[in-house]
């Protein structure tokens, strides 16, 4: 269960997130849509405290992320404890960010999680590439290794930040297939993406973000097929050419 | 265009896939190579025939015992200078990159000072430390001391040489290490942080191995530089290679062959370092070759 309450975030004078509140039940898949600059990635990065919020709270299974509450004050946790909390939150980057000096298996092992790297690589269909270095893999394969690495810690929640945006079109499918499998297995996921087809098929909730605010949210049949707001309609008409 | 070409084509032109391809000729390459080879031959001929090189004296001193002892001291100074220097560099570089303004400025100032002072000047300063502070003591800062040393007994000529080389080297090594750390993609640290990898392990397992690729060529350069810089400590009358050949030619007047003894040893040691560099770079380059 992820509980985001009243999150504000600004970079200097630029307000990126304004009063974001979301409640995501365990096992659910949430897709965040929105034009570039709408704050999607920043919201995702606030969830695992890669960015510090200016106001508001993020809780995963009731645990406050990045802070300790003391009366009416939130004390930022020392980095050591934040790093520990992140073990519960997997993160998949747009640019994969595999460690280039380690093989696929070593990348997964580096997380030092409870899960077996061989089994995880098999799950993303790359058992035969365990000893390959990232350079020797295609973008789609690299992203699948990155997903296996994020799963190594057996996280309660996996965040995907535009996981297919850096891929050649014919490689997008293999990554989405792996994500679909994860969703069916009951993994709690938050996905920032422009893949409307994936959202329609897999998401329980679609959230549309614009200008750092949630414009609307609901099941894909509502938000994607019968959007209530003009802004959502305009965005979808451009994405769904 | 098609009309023109068909008009020009001979009646029995061979099929396109039957034509033989003749690579372009490069006659000037042969001319340039020949000219350079003549110059090289002249140089080698001069080495062999000019009696001034005095190869028999060179051979007599190349493995001479005092030269061997001096070579050992040169190696000791290089090795100790490199180890202490890079240990200092590995400490100073993260300090310079830290968010703590005090650490940053101390590191910056250290690098500034020790890069500014010529090595030879610094060595003479350390050798004359006793003039500045005749006693050194360990104790509470600004408070009472526990142990006390005579400066001249603590800082020998060799100690002064080592101190000078190490501090000089640390300033350069710090910048080399810093360049290496900066060359690592910021997103690598972010990926490590997202996996909850502790800070020290991030540095040791993720940042440093990748930084090594940028560090190694510069570090090897610096090591070769250090090897040759050890010749500067002759000003402190330490019997390293350059000092020793000076002593010998001061006795027998055979300047050129003895300078050649030192030169050839420096060349050989540099060659050994270059071979080590090749294999170390190959080790840290894994994952970057297809």
Descriptive account of the structure:
The complex is a heterodimer of chains A (241) and B (290). With 241 residues, chain A is α/β, with parallel strands linked by helices. Chain A is built from nine helices and twelve strands. Chain A has helices at 40-47, 79-86, 104-110, 117-123, 139-151, 169-184, 196-202, 220-223, 230-239, and strands at residues 2-11, 14-24, 29-33, 55-60, 63-64, 67-70, 73-76, 89-92, 157-161, 189-192, 205-210, 213-218. In chain A, strands 8-9-10-3-11-12 form a six-stranded mixed β-sheet, with helices on both faces. Chain A has a four-stranded antiparallel β-sheet with strand order 2-1-4-5, with helices on one face. Chain A has a two-stranded antiparallel sheet with strand order 6-7. In chain A, strand 9 (157-161), helix 6 and strand 10 form a beta-alpha-beta unit. In chain A, helix 4 (117-123) crosses helix 5 (139-151) and helix 5 packs parallel to helix 6 (169-184). The model of chain A has no long low-confidence stretch (mean pLDDT 94). Chain B is mainly α and 290 residues long. In chain B, 73% of the residues lie in helices and 4% in strands. Chain B is built from 13 helices and two strands, in the order αααααααββαααααα. In chain B, strands 1-2 form a two-stranded antiparallel ribbon. In chain B, a hairpin with a 5-residue loop joins strand 1 (135-139) and strand 2. The chains are: A alpha/beta (241), B mainly alpha (290). Chains A and B meet through helix 2 and strand 8 of A and helix 10 and helix 11 of B.
Question: Radius of gyration of chain A from the CA trace?
Answer: 18 Å
The largest sheet of chain B has its strands arranged as 1-2
Q: What is the helix/strand order of chain A? A: EEEHEEEEHEHHHEHEHEEHH
Report the sheet-strand fraction of chain A.
25-35%
Q: SSE order of chain B in H/E notation?
A: HHHHHHHEEHHHHHH
Q: Could you tell me how far the N terminus lies from the C terminus of chain B, measured between alpha carbons in angstroms?
A: 46 Å
Poorly predicted residue ranges of chain A: none
What's the tally of helices of chain B?
A: 13
Supply the helix-strand structural class of chain B: mainly alpha
Largest sheet of chain A: 6 strands, mixed
Approximate helicity band of chain A: 25-40%
Quote the distance from N terminus to C terminus of chain A: 35 Å
């Amino acid at each position: 269960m992820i509980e985001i309450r009243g999150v504000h975030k600004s970079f200097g004078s630029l307000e990126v997130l304004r009063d974001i509140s979301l409640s995501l039940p365990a096992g659910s898949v949430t897709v965040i849509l929105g034009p570039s600059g709408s704050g999607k990635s920043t919201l995702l990065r606030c969830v695992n405290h890669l960015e510090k919020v200016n106001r508001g709270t993020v809780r995963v299974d009731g645990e406050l992320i990045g802070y300790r509450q003391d009366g009416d004050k939130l004390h930022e946790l020392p980095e050591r404890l934040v790093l520990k909390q992140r073990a519960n939150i997997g993160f998949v980057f747009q640019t994969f960010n595999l460690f280039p000096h380690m093989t696929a298996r070593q990348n997964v092992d580096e997380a030092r999680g409870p899960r077996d790297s061989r089994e995880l690589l098999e799950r993303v269909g790359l058992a035969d590439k365990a000893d390959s270095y990232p350079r020797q893999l295609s973008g789609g394969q690299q992203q699948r290794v990155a997903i296996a690495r994020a799963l190594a810690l057996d996280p309660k929640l996996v965040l995907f930040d535009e996981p297919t945006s850096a891929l050649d079109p014919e490689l997008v499918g293999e990554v989405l297939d792996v994500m679909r499998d994860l969703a069916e297995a009951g993994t709690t996921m938050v996905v920032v993406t422009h893949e409307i087809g994936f959202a329609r098929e897999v998401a329980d909730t679609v959230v549309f973000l614009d200008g750092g605010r949630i414009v609307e949210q609901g099941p894909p049949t509502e938000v994607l097929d019968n959007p209530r707001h003009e802004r959502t309609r305009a965005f979808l008409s451009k994405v769904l050419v | 265009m098609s009309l023109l070409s068909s008009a020009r084509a001979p009646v029995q032109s061979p099929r396109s896939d039957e034509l033989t391809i003749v690579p372009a000729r490069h006659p000037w390459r042969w001319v340039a190579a020949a000219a350079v080879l003549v110059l090289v031959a002249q140089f080698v001929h001069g080495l062999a025939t000019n009696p001034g090189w005095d190869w028999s004296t060179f051979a007599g001193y190349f493995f001479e015992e005092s030269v061997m002892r001096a070579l050992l001291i040169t190696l000791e100074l290089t090795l100790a200078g490199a180890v202490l220097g890079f240990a200092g560099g590995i400490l100073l570089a993260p300090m310079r990159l830290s968010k703590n303004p005090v650490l940053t400025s101390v590191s910056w100032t250290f690098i500034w000072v020790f890069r500014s002072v010529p090595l030879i000047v610094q060595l003479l300063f350390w050798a004359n430390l006793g003039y500045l502070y005749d006693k050194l003591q360990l104790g509470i800062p600004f408070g009472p001391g526990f142990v006390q040393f005579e400066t001249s007994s603590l800082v020998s000529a060799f100690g002064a040489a080592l101190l000078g080389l190490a501090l000089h080297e640390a300033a350069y090594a710090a910048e080399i290490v810093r360049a290496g750390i900066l060359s690592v993609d910021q997103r690598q640290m972010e990926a490590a942080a997202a996996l909850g990898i502790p800070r020290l392990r991030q540095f040791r397992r993720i940042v440093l191995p990748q930084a090594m690729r940028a560090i190694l060529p510069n570090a090897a350069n610096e090591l070769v530089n250090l090897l040759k810089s050890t010749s500067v400590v002759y000003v402190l009358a330490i019997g390293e290679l350059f000092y020793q050949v000076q002593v010998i030619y001061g006795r027998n007047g055979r300047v050129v062959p003895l300078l050649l003894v030192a030169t050839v040893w420096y060349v050989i040691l540099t060659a050994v370092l270059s071979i080590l560099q090749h294999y170390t770079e190959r080790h840290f380059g894994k994952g970057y070759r297809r």
